[in-house]
Amino acid sequence: MSKKTILCTVLALCMVLVGTGYAYWTDTLNVTTKATTGDLEVKFVDLGAYAQYDNEKVGGNNWSIIDGIKRENTNGFISANYFQRNTNTYNDVFGSPDKRLDYYAEASNYNSVDFDAGIDGGVLTENYGGLPYGEGVIAGDTINITVNDLYPGYAQAFRSDIINIGSIAARLSQVEFKVSKIKGSEIDITKQTKDLIGVALLVEDENPETYGEVVKLAAQFDPEDKFTLGGVEFVRLSALENMAELEENLILVPSDNSEHRMDMFIGVAVDPDAEGVYTTGTAANMTKNDDGKTQNKGVQLDIKFGWDQFNAGVEADASNILENQNGLNQ
After folding, report:
1. What distance in Å separates the CA atoms of residue 156 and residue 154, rounded to the nearest whole number?
2. Which of 243, 217, 253, 247 has its CA nearest to residue 313?
3. Closest Cα partner for 252 from 151, 148, 171?
4. How far apart (Å, rounded) are the C-alpha atoms in residues 155 and 268?
């Protein structure tokens, strides 16, 4: 081989190496993170007169209404099963069929009380876990209860379930009470009215040992702030409006994961006041109070249940190596 030939070969190889020297090998690594946010949504569902389910009754005579009317089987009250309904239906507040007209007719010679109750907010849009509440069942954020033409010694009780249809557990952390004039009404409100009318409230967790205790309203007040009717202590509205909100700690897990729910029982009553503290009392023991201060009056009670995420206020007492990215350990 001649020298000329060798030189040409070397030059050609050098040109190839020069051309590839302007490129680099590359590679990539990718991290894909997908995240969605859930929701916190607690609803009232299955409103009804008290004890439409037998397991909600306590021992002895259970009342749904105390009206003082003497009857053949009950003395002064309507029994809890008066508004009984088919347990496969929900939100039949006053029974199946509606028993209010029967009560009005029975009591017509004694009183003119009328009442109504309902849930505002819409209906469930799907079935939720193992609960019996399915698509189309009435559910909402507000319960409206109206009882007209009350009188001393009258009481009435209602019940409702509270369910969590969100994706995370909720904590009942506050209960607030607001006493005011009835919205849109010309009826006056007086201090004596707020002293005379009372409310009872029990929120009972179906699994109190696991998720929390119960809200027992009357247990948090002094005797002078309460009166008793039908074995139940009712807190005067005047005491409620002057109190700070209750601080509670009840956990309600999502219904889609469990049949866990809360039962709410609420009652409204008027103090019998036989001693005449707020009324003129009885004919045998009449005081000089003015009944005009409590007759033909009205009052509105708004109860607000404040729910937080179950982990609100919980700080993790821990760390990990990511703390080094904070710039604290350089």
Report:
1. 7
2. 247
3. 171
4. 6
**Which residue in this structure is represented by tokens 């039949």?**
92
Kindly write down the DSSP assignment for every residue of 156-223, as one continuous string. EEEEEEEEE-SSS-EEEEEEEEEEEPPTT------HHHHHHEEEEEEEEESSHHHH---EESGGGS-G
User: What does DSSP assign to residue 259?
Assistant: S
pTM over 0.70? The answer is yes
Q: Can you tell me the distance from the alpha carbon of 330 to that of 328, in angstroms, rounded to the nearest whole number?
A: 6
Tokens of 134: 């399915």
What pLDDT digit, counting tens, does each position of 255-301 carry?
665 667 888 999 999 999 999 999 999 999 999 999 999 999 999 99
Q: Specify the 3-state DSSP secondary structure of 126.
A: coil
Both tokens assigned to 172: 């009942």
Q: How many CB atoms lie within 10 A of CB 151?
A: 16
CB atoms within 10 A of CB 98: 13
Beta-bridged to residue 215, according to DSSP, are 203
Cα separation, 141 vs 135, in Å, equals: 17
- What residues have CB less than 8 Å from 315, skipping those under 6 apart? none
Q: What are the tokens at 102? A: 């029967």
